[in-house]
Amino acid sequence: MFTERVHSRAQARDTSRIKVLSAAEELFVQHGFATTTIRQIAESAAVSVGTVMAVADKNGLLVEIFDRKIASIQPSPSGAPIARNPAAEIIDILGSFVRFFAAQPDLARAYTAILVGGKHPSIIFAELTGVLIEQVSDVLTRAGHPATDASATARIVHRAYLGEIFIWAGQGHPNPDSTLTELEKTVRYLVNGKAA
To answer: Where in the numbering of this chain does the HTH tetR-type domain appear (predicted)?
Structure first.
């Protein structure tokens, strides 16, 4: 009997969490992050303000929403034996994230500002760092780069990617094409040793 009550409480918590995150995402998209309030999220989710805050504050909600979306677009390794055009493969890997951020520029900017603030770390963002570095390193290794060089170059490519994302987030207008173009120039330079 005790375990049934604990299980039903855990189920209720999970259900509330899903309702809160869904309501928050819908309101953030419709009305913007800055103007959406915790009270509005609570009303939309049909829960109390306390229940919303038990899930997370507004910043934490956005980080969790974005983390879930980012997790769903993580690229899988190509598995091709030889990388014939490593720069293009790398841009394909990183480009999906640039396009994801560009699809919701205001929320993406709020998300990056929250991460820079350091109060709400993103577990997915940290895990994704390792995944992306590993995938870029794999492309470079398959293209014939020595493993040590491939790993070091992959880290530099990842930092360039983050730099472009944060530069884009700091601009007042969404233009993923210029971000992708700049990232592509950097990647081609690092991979091929010359400007695109």
So the answer is: 21-52
Task: Name the packing angle between helices 86-103 and 58-72 (round to 10°).
Answer: 140
**Contact partners, residue 194, CB within 8 Å, separation at least 6:** 188
Q: Does domain 2-55 have CATH number 1.10.1200.10?
A: no
Tell me which residue has tokens 């794999």: 138
Mean pLDDT confidence for 23-43 = 96
Question: How is the chain split into domains, by residue range?
Answer: 2-55, 65-192
> CB within 8 A of 158, min separation 6: which ones?
129, 132, 133, 136
In this predicted structure, which of 48-52, 76-80, 190-194 has the lowest mean pLDDT?
76-80
pTM of the model: 0.77
φ and ψ at residue 12, rounded to 5 degrees: -65, -40
Q: Name, in order, each residue with C-beta under 8 angstroms of 154's C-beta and a sequence gap of 6 or more.
A: 132, 133, 134, 136, 137, 140
CA dihedral of residues 139, 141, 143, 144 (deg, nearest 10): 170
